[in-house]
Amino acid sequence: MEQAGAAAIAIHCRQPHERPCDDAHWDALPLLPSALNVPVLANGDIYTQEDIARVRAETGCSGVLIARGALHNASCFRKEGLLPYTENIREFLKVAAETDNVFQNTKYSISRMLPSKVNHLETPSVVLPYDHVTVPDIAATKSNREMFALFGLGEYLDEYTAKYAARASELDVSVGPNAPDRVYDDSHVLNRQFFCDACGLQLLSDQDVALHVKGKRHKKKLRALASQSVLASVESSNKRLKVSADDDDDTAALTTQD
To answer: Which residues contact 138 (CB under 8 A, 6 or more apart)?
Structure first.
């Protein structure tokens, strides 16, 4: 690639069969920067300024690329550190209202900004305004009005909706911002055929499933579930043995009395 004229080379630190839930292999990168004369950019599991500093120190890469980290919390680029995720969400919603962003896109983006089992975000140790809102709450919304209201921005949305409606009226536009939100049915998203019950993860195709079951995270989850099952079985067996032993003791005591 360098000989072909690439100005820089980005390396995604996962193999083709691995999924985002699998850990990125930063340890595979250190040999590459010294072997190339163009900048090498690391990608994978980078969410904070601390991650950026650590991956550059451990790998020697010139820079990084961030995808999911920026979706989860765009303030990952701040040298001062991350802003509370609820603050990011409210600012994003304001921009969405000001630009008349489509409901489905806003809904998806907000879902990625909230802590969940698929988002590498820790639940904050302090109480934040609107931190009671969860991914299922967002999933249940069917309109911008419902979604904005969850974060106390219903009036903000109404203000810009009215502005767009007035502008549409001036232009004699019969569809657009002044039209009511379409009812959005996302029940089709949960496809049991491609849903991993062990990991609680929705996949999208047979290929996704095939790749997912090969991943380390999925196998680790199965081992954990198997261990829990064995432990529960042992505890149940111990309880039965204890009951049986108690019954034998009672029988022996009665025999002695007779």
So the answer is: 107, 110, 111, 114, 147, 150
